[in-house]
Design goal:
301 residues, alpha+beta, Arc Repressor Mutant, subunit A, Endonuclease, Chain A, four-stranded mixed beta sheet, three-stranded antiparallel beta sheet, elongated
């Protein structure tokens, strides 16, 4: 026998709210069988709580989980809206703090101002929306591009590191840079080691830079692309028993590559070789430090 508490409009409303973090749109209430006057009566009796125009909750606003606040903001912003920028960063768990207002992006021309929300408008939103925890949200790579417009370089780099850790930005279609054309955050995106490493350097460029570093501090040039102890290595100084590996791009970010790199390091060390790793971004952006460390490893300082 069905529980009578779950029948009729109130039962339908409770079921929907249970799947939507406690919030519902006015249209959903009407479809569930409530009239506009019934909605008003429930508001007066505190059985419903108005969050925004046309958006309600079954619990007081202060009792809503963050997901409830975010979904309510998206519902209030109209068709095609998605949580974005700092709020999306918190939902994706790549940012710690979303700011004072919930941020939502809407397609150009589809929404008016919503009191209490920070609305952004975009002509390129539609293909860049995902769903997380039942909430329409900008894709992770689009969120990183949006964050470049509104956060500091340090915050953006931390967010990119978290996104990299989740593996969610990997793949040819997962690059935040493709969303950056003409945006004020484009220069900040260029500072991300994640993006530079993905683009990376050609082998010839990397080899030239390594040889140049050695000339700067008077080090002997390494052999490159040699097989040592059964492993193909990037650079080797045989007299010093030193192997240098250069990490960058997708080739070193997958779980299998991570495991294989560590296995290789152990095999080389068991065979009596020292192994040092430098990222492509470090070689490109901080060559003096890399040169100094190489000199110390080779006993020249």
């Amino acid at each position: 026998m069905r529980n009578s508490a779950l029948t009729g409009p109130d039962g339908a409303i409770a079921l929907m709210a249970g799947e939507q973090w406690g919030v519902l749109s006015g249209a959903q209430l009407l479809r569930a069988g409530l009239s506009r006057s019934a909605i008003t009566r429930r508001l007066h009796a505190a059985r419903l709580h108005r969050l925004y125009r046309g958006v309600y909750s079954l619990v007081p606003p202060a009792a809503l989980a963050p997901e409830g606040r975010w979904l309510a903001a998206v519902l209030a912003s109209g068709s095609g809206a998605a949580l974005s920028h700092r709020s999306a960063g918190v939902l994706w768990e790549i940012l710690d703090h979303e700011g004072l207002q919930v941020e939502v992006t809407v397609p150009v021309g589809r929404a008016q101002r919503v009191r209490g929300l920070h609305l952004h408008r975009s002509r390129t939103l539609v293909p860049n929306v995902s769903t997380r925890r039942g909430i329409p949200v900008t894709t992770l790579e689009r969120t990183l591009a949006d964050l470049a417009d509104v956060v500091s370089v340090a915050q953006l780099r931390r967010a990119a590191q978290q996104a990299e850790f989740k593996r969610a930005t990997l793949g040819p279609a997962g690059d935040p840079w493709r969303h950056a054309n003409g945006r004020r955050g484009a220069p900040m995106l260029r500072t991300l080691p994640l993006l530079r490493a993905r683009v990376g350097m050609t082998w010839s460029e990397l080899e030239r830079r390594m040889l140049r570093l050695c000339r700067i501090v008077g080090l002997p040039p390494p052999e490159s692309n040699q097989r040592i102890a059964g492993e193909r290595v990037d650079f080797v100084w045989r007299d010093a028993r030193l192997v240098v590996e250069t990490d960058g791009g997708q080739a070193h970010l997958t779980a299998n590559a991570f495991e294989n790199d560590r296995r290789r390091d152990v095999e080389l060390m068991v065979a009596g070789w020292r192994v040092a790793r430098f990222t492509w971004a470090a070689i490109q952006d901080d060559p003096d430090r890399v040169a100094d460390r190489l000199a110390r490893l080779l006993g020249r300082l």
